[in-house]
Amino acid sequence: MASIEDLIDPDVRVNFTPERGEQLAMIGPDMTAARARWAELLVAWRLILPGFDGREEASTVPGLAGNPDVPVHIYTPDRAEFPDAVMIWVHGGGYVMGTADDPFVFRYTPLMKVISVDYRMAPEHRSPAAVLDTCAVIEWVAANAGPMGIDPAKIILGGPSGGGGVAAGAALMNRDRGGPALLYQMLIYPMIDDRHHTPSGHLDLPAYCWTREVSLRAWSMYVEAEGEPSCYAAAARAEDVTGLPSAYIMAGDLDLFRDEDVAYANRLIGAGIRVDLAVFPGAPHGFDLVAPEAPVSRRAIAHQLDCLRQVLSR
């Protein structure tokens, strides 16, 4: 029987180096080192990712009542297919790493403006801090849509991995708060279930992948300190998914999160919510970020952009 490593697309596997496993092993034991390594990777990724023609601006958005202001990074393209649309981007990093100054947004800037949220991260700030910060940005964008040239009916919320988890939690909280309508939630292999009770949650993944052990450590730092985790921390725990925006949900077939992401998509579909669902073969967690030039990654990125175009063209 083939090992998981043998099943990984070879054009993807070449970019999943042992050094990546060393960085993931730091999550929990040494967050300072893990974050420093993440920052180094972002510098390297900037050299191989598509560039950005436009204006980058660091700014601050008022926080919700009782919460601090939220730093954001605003990317305004010189030209965009949908200049009146905006994506509120929630960066990845397993809830514990990452930055709003995120080069991965450049794949979306040909379509629209992107406002990236520098949300409070664990372990310094547990749930629901990140979701509260994201909801503050949602409300600020809707309130200031006119001056920014944005159609308030074209607000998209999205992110990968932990950022996808924050986005899913924020969509739930925004609904429960009676917040602004969102056109679409773009959940790219979202980290939404702290239990990992599914078959994919027990995959014997190589150390350079996002493994069950690493994931459970990250979850332990992120969820609320007392009681059962809320649906704002782990969206898969939501008892009611009605009234949520249409969604894009994507995972690889070798992703720890595969089954929980597909199950969440099925719950949304069952609630009458329109869902674009995709599972890509030979693909571990983060494949399109780590190996963006691999053919399977190109297909995944093209699929994301095609679905966004369809949603924004309706």
List key phrases describing it.
single chain; 314 residues; alpha/beta; 8-stranded mixed sheet
Give a topology summary:
Elements (H helix, E strand, L loop, with lengths): L3 H4 L2 H4 L4 H8 L5 H18 L5 E8 L8 E8 L8 E5 L22 E5 L11 H15 L1 H4 L6 E6 L1 H15 L7 E5 L23 H11 L23 E7 L5 H13 L4 E6 L6 H4 L4 H19 L1
Helix pairs in contact: 5-7
Q: Can you describe what's shown?
A:
- With 314 residues, the chain is of the alpha/beta class.
- It has eleven helices and eight strands.
- It has helices at 4-7, 10-13, 18-25, 31-48, 129-143, 145-148, 162-176, 212-222, 258-270, 287-290, 295-313; strands spanning 54-61, 70-77, 86-90, 113-117, 155-160, 184-188, 246-252, 275-280.
- The protein has an eight-stranded mixed beta sheet with strand order 1-2-4-3-5-6-7-8, with helices on both faces.
- Strand 6, helix 8 and strand 7 (246-252) form a beta-alpha-beta unit.
- Helix 5 packs across helix 7 (162-176).
- It is globular and about 55 Å long.
- The model has no long low-confidence stretch (mean pLDDT 96).
